[in-house]
Write the structure tokens for this entry.
Amino acid sequence: MLGFDRITFDPRIMGGQACIRGMRVPVSLILNLVANGKTVDEIREDYPYLEPEDIQQSLMYAAWLTREQVYPIVGNQAG
């Protein structure tokens, strides 16, 4: 999946949510921590088994998921 080698999906782990390297650490947790102002160092202090690349790839994955796509209207579709 587009080079996200640290993001894993396993139906037996956290109900199949996107997780970090097969651990019970969902990407959504990382995003929530960042959104609430935690720094990478603070996150790693609380979760010492995470690597900076795990956090970076979580952010990249979220950006990839939310990319905006514009689809042009084809033909004459008067309202």
